[in-house]
Amino acid sequence: MLTVGSLTKAVWGGLRIGWIRGPREAVEPLARLKALEDLGSPLLDQALAARLLPGLATLAPDRERLRRERLATMTRLLDEHLPDWRWQPPQGGSALWIPLPPGTGAHGYAQLALRHGAEVIPGNTMDTTGAHDDFLRLPFSFAPDTARELVTRLTAAWTALSRDASLAPPIEIR
Length: 174
Prior knowledge:
Helix content is 46%, strand content 11%. The chain contains five helices and five strands, in the order E-E-H-H-H-E-H-E-E-H. The strands form two sheets. It has a three-stranded antiparallel β-sheet with strand order 3-5-4, with helices on one face. It has a two-stranded antiparallel sheet with strand order 1-2.
């Protein structure tokens, strides 16, 4: 049996350090393949991970509190400014999966949002099964001011889509 883990969500998204645990005969070939593919993880990241791992148990509650606060901020902003959008509260992770109305096209909306200065990921780029083709993957880990600006731009793009226009003036959210 193999298990995987990472520090990405437990510490911060930019720390791309992960691991695989399992029997030596299964893990060693994977380690060789990784070394051939990327020549190893950056040394600074490895050093940070080595220093952070012993204190991970004390970091986790603060990270979870911050995750809950930022989720609450994002969902409040979405409720206020994009009330037609619906989503399920995430079981974990740092993104909402938002289904768009049938026929909207998540890929097209993501392109329109990008023209409004908001980068969101259509679900089909994260799911090859086709089950999330009409979904947006919206991170909620941003600081409140950044989340507010993101929702401002998403609202402008949604308004433009609703009006079938190519661009709409940005709306400021207070």
